[in-house]
Specification:
Elements lengths: L9 H10 L5 E4 L5 H13 L3 E6 L8 H9 L4 E7 L11 H10 L5 E5 L5 H10 L5 E3 L13 H11 L4 E5 L17 H11 L4 E3 L12 H11 L5 H15 L6
Parallel strand pairs: 1-2, 2-3, 3-4, 4-5, 5-6, 6-7
Length: 254
């Protein structure tokens, strides 16, 4: 993990975006602390290429509505993420958590589903209960990409894909491999499944930078999807590589 033990700031990311023809990015929380929300919002205010922020608010807190109201008034604050992958089985069924989720639509905030593969069944039940809430599944539900496709993962992805309020991030793949080693073709069966389930209008590229550096540089992560999309139309490429994210997080494109 030594490669990650340093500061990663907007100045480190901007040249990577430029080299790969991105106009900007959405910064997503890596700590479940409101102090990080404030740090990321300052980054967005100072750097035009940071188009939005997905932060954290304690959805279990009895006073969560007031905190959501505070952040929803901030221009760059687009949504909430919670490290569900670190929670025990059954977390998404908790009454206090669901109360928090039920408030997000009121404040026009999205919710990023960061979870492990074995929590996908719970996620299906959650999103069914809130059809008006915009959800996005992070890292394709974190399957293990070194080996054969897990049938249960495929089944759950297909079920989530039926729900129009759920998007999916094509991200995090390189860090869910054996010893962080992979070949481009390793990901194709998984990409086939998510593209069939969600279609080109509900998938979005995510770099997972800087965590991806455990395995490879930003450009190689970008190349995985660029290669896969080679036979797609130009419109489909633009959707997956930016327009869907802008639509989901309500970012105005110039």
């Amino acid at each position: 993990m030594q490669v990650l033990k340093k500061d990663f700031l907007p100045a480190d990311l901007q040249p990577l975006l430029k080299e790969n023809n991105f106009d900007g990015c959405v910064a997503v929380q890596a700590l479940m602390q409101e102090s990080e929300n404030d740090f990321l919002l300052k980054c967005a205010e100072k750097h035009e290429f940071v188009k939005g922020v997905v932060g954290w608010v304690d959805l279990l807190d009895e006073k969560v509505e007031g905190r959501l109201e505070v952040y929803s008034d901030k221009t760059y604050f687009k949504g909430i993420r919670h490290f569900i992958q670190s929670e025990a089985q059954g977390f998404m069924g908790r009454r206090d958590f669901r109360k928090g989720i039920s408030l997000l639509d009121k404040f026009d905030l999205t919710f990023d589903l960061l979870l492990s593969q074995d929590q996908l069944g719970e996620a299906i039940d959650l999103v069914k209960q809130y059809p008006n809430q915009a959800f996005v599944l992070d890292h394709m539900g974190k399957p293990f990409f070194s080996g054969n496709v897990d049938r249960e993962w495929k089944k759950n992805i297909q079920e989530l894909g039926k729900m129009e309020n759920v998007f999916c991030k094509v991200s995090g793949m390189v860090c869910e491999t054996e010893n962080f080693k992979w070949k481009y073709e390793d990901f194709n069966p998984y990409l086939d499944i998510v593209f069939e389930a969600f279609g080109s209008n509900r998938l979005m590229f995510g770099s997972d930078w800087p965590v991806c550096l455990l395995s490879c540089e930003y450009e190689k992560v970008f190349n995985i999807l660029e290669r896969y999309l080679n036979s797609f139309s130009e419109n489909e490429k633009q959707l997956v590589m930016g327009k869907n994210a802008a639509n989901f997080y309500k970012i105005e494109l110039s």
